[in-house]
């Protein structure tokens, strides 16, 4: 059972990392395309730092809404499943 819980944690962490990296790459890409071509180099650096904010907020919302419910359901299912080796 411990192996199943460990696997559950590893899978959920992997999903969260992939979600964060994909939203981060999209945010940085759109910031570069929309804003950095029309502004100075100093302001472009500040805009790249601001591009980190939306992925962080979306990841926290994803953790609270999606992953929390998924973890609860899968944890109960693992705990109630019969042990077979």
Verbal overview:
By secondary structure, the chain is an all-alpha fold. It has one domain (2-80). It has three helices and no strands.
Report the biggest beta sheet as strand number plus sense, adding barrel if it closes.
none
Extract low-pLDDT stretches.
none
Number of strands: 0
Q: How many H/I helical runs?
A: 3
Span of the ends, CA to CA: 10 Å
Beta-strand percentage?
under 5%
**SSE order, as H and E?**
HHH
The number of domains: 1
> What is the overall silhouette?
rod-shaped
Q: Report the C-alpha radius of gyration, rounded.
A: 19 Å
Mean pLDDT: 85
Helix-strand category: mainly alpha
| Helix percentage | over 70%
List keywords for this structure.
single chain, 85 residues, mainly alpha, 3 helices
Quick structural overview:
With 85 residues, the chain is mainly alpha-helical.
Please give the structural blueprint.
Blueprint: H1 2-36, H2 41-50, H3 53-80
